Amino acid sequence: MVSDDVLSWLLDSDPALRWQVERDLAGAPESVWRATRARVATEGFGARLLALQDADGQWAGGAYFPADFDFAGPEAADDAGQPWTATTWSLNSLREWGVDAAVLGDTAERIAANSRWEYDDLPYWGGEVDCCINGYTVANGTWLGADVSGLTSWLLEHRMSDGGWNCEWVEGSTVSSFHSTLNVLKGLLVAESGTGSSDDVRDARRGGEEYLLSRRLSTRLSTGEPVAPWVSRFAYPFRWFYSVLNAAEYFRDAAMLDGRSPDPRMADAIEQIRGARQPDGTWLQERRHPGRVWFEVDVDVGEPSKWLTLSATRVLDWWDAAQRGDSR
Q1: Distance between CA atoms of residues 257 and 260, nearest Å
Q2: pTM higher than 0.90
Q3: CA of 245: how far to CAs of 19, 92, 220, 237, in Å?
Q4: CA count, 13 A, side-chain hemisphere, 13
Q5: Structural domain spans, the chain
Q6: pLDDT tens-digit profile of 179-230?
Q7: What do you get for the CA distance between the two ends of the chain, in Å?
Q8: What does the alpha-carbon distance between residue 72 and residue 85 come to, in Å, rounded to a whole number?
């Protein structure tokens, strides 16, 4: 449960965050949080990002990278991160912040006409070869009403034999990746939520979930050791990076869609999240993902993060309620 002080701190925030606090932590009536959610398109982060859209429907003139990105320049160095300003990342943010797709009008059609992937100049809504990118595209296309059924089928066809996905399949990888699997699962979940499920999609999603659950969201199947330090280092925005918090948010959403209880194999991951809570009930920004951004939406490393505190608190509330047998 969130304390009154932390709840007041969380509510004093941009509408993109506030409406989620109202809905998931404060127990506000639906009319209240929906009114706040509607403000995302006209105030704060959401309004700023919408105003940066190009006339052709894109952001920064590119699909995954901005049009002025120099693939041979210093911004392409391994330690430089990547830009987070192009169309895919901007759509991800607007969707995750709760902007109504109707606000974006004919964006899906303009993107279809004008946006091509940097990889092989492929058409935007057809996707490319990267599983994570295609997962985002399925989610964003579903949200905006584009036909991404073919891309959904592509994702199902590119599952690894161990149940998950790996964006490096095109380079010869044959085992799944935590990062890739989670990003695809998120896309499939949005597709199911938006257009309904099919047996094939549901089976693939459950198989990907099993890949992560059999590893307790954080360990190697072969040794039981942590897969890497990044599993328990939390940062907002999540971007494409895996963490047990990012994964737990997905499993909460999936359980709510499916009407299921939390899987007990999540217990260790939940305790990692609980263990990161500060004495004052907040969670700290533990890392930043380098790269160009339109504007900052969260705090520097070492500072209490409202976004992470919202995310971690609602995951723990969901888990703890289930352990008590509470149906809330």
Answers
A1: 8
A2: yes
A3: 20, 18, 17, 12
A4: 23
A5: 1-42
A6: 999 999 999 999 999 988 789 999 999 999 999 999 999 999 999 999 999 9
A7: 13
A8: 18
The position carrying tokens 């289930």 is: 322
Q: In Å, how far from its chain's centre is CA 206?
A: 18
Fill in the amino acid letter for 141: G
Residues 6+ apart with CB under 8 A from 328: 321
The set of residues, in sequence order, having a beta carbon less than 8 Å from that of 241 and lying 6+ positions away, is 179, 230, 235, 289
Token match 């499939």: residue? 188
Give the per-residue SS3 of the chain: CCCHHHHHHHHCCCHHHHHHHHHHCCCCCHHHHHHHHHHHHCCHHHHHHHHCECCCCCECCECCCCCCCCCCCHHHCHHHCCCCCCHHHHHHHHHHHCCCHHHHCCHHHHHHHHCECCCCCCEHHHCCCCHHHHHHHHHHHHHHCCCCHHHHHHHHHCCCCCCCCCHHHHHCCCCCCHHHHHHHHHHHHHHHHHHCCCHHHHHHHHHHHHHHHCCCCCECCCCCCECCHHHHCCCCCCCCCCCHHHHHHHHHHHHHHHCCCCCHHHHHHHHHHHHCCCCCCCEECCCCCCCCCCCCCCCCCCCEEHHHHHHHHHHHHHHHHHHHCCCC
Answer for the pair 304, 278: CB distance below 8 angstroms, yes or no: yes
Task: Measure Cα distances from 66 to 63, 105, 136, 210, 236 in Å.
Answer: 7, 22, 17, 36, 21
pLDDT digits (tens, 9 = 90+) for 46-104: 999 999 999 999 999 999 999 999 999 999 998 888 999 999 999 999 999 999 999 99
Cα dist from 327 to 56, 216, 261, whole Å: 46, 24, 10
